[in-house]
């Protein structure tokens, strides 16, 4: 994934996480989804057109469309008031593709860190499927927190490392990335725990 594009993937995930948490309105979040979604469609198209048919370049660019179409779909839903079922089922498709791209990071690109990042994205998009297509509203806040945290730790942080030439990958770094992914999911589960419904008892006069 392009270093610059990854930075703004982090930004839009952060904003969408806040939207799911109810901090940012849907229409406010739609703008960022349009900007980044458009970029994540234009950039891979340019890469493919300039690749000269290089299979590695085409493969590397192809995954960007999954993000671009997701963000444009989010913007469409927020601006039109469309229901989320279609986006939810598309998210299931994206989750399955993300697993494949994660495996390819290990087998084709020798990049365990991004392999684990793709796996964490697969979990995220599967949560979108559960919330939007299967109506699991109890997972909304947990999905919001996971989206926000992944925006920071799988978007902004690795992008900055790549842009500054500080990115390192390998078996140890991949194991660390896996642990971080599990910790972030656990943290999101705790932070997004639905508030307990307090029983409203009518006081009995004595």
From TrEMBL:
Transmembrane segments: 6-24, 31-50, 56-74, 86-107, 113-133, 145-168, 174-192
Record's keyword terms, sorted: Cell membrane, Membrane, Transmembrane, Transmembrane helix, Transport
Listed InterPro entries: AmiSUreI_transpt (IPR003211), AmiSUreI_transpt_sf (IPR038523)
GO CC entries: plasma membrane
Protein species of origin: Leucobacter triazinivorans
One Pfam family here: AmiS_UreI
Gene3D superfamilies tied to this protein: 1.25.40.600
Tree of life domain: Bacteria
Family classification: Belongs to the AmiS/UreI family.
Protein name: Transporter
Membrane topology listed for this record: Multi-pass membrane protein
Cellular compartments annotated: Cell membrane
């Amino acid at each position: 994934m392009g270093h610059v594009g990854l930075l703004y993937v982090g930004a839009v995930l952060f904003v969408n996480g806040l939207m799911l948490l109810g901090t940012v309105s849907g229409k406010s979040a739609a703008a960022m989804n349009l900007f980044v979604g458009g970029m994540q469609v234009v950039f891979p198209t340019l890469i493919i057109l300039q690749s000269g048919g290089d299979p590695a370049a085409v493969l590397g660019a192809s995954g960007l469309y999954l993000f671009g179409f997701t963000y444009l779909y989010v913007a469409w839903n927020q601006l039109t008031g469309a229901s989320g079922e279609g986006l939810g089922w598309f998210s299931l498709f994206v989750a399955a593709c993300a697993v494949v791209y994660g495996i390819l990071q290990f087998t084709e690109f020798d990049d365990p860190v991004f392999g684990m990042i793709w796996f964490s994205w697969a979990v995220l998009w599967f949560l979108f499927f559960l919330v939007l297509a299967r109506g699991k509203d109890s997972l909304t806040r947990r999905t919001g927190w996971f989206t926000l945290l992944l925006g920071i730790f799988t978007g902004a942080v690795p992008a900055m490392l790549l842009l500054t030439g500080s990115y390192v990958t390998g078996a140890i770094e991949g194991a660390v990335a896996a642990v971080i992914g599990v910790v972030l999911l656990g943290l999101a589960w705790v932070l997004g725990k639905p508030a307990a419904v307090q029983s409203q008892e009518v006081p009995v006069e004595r």
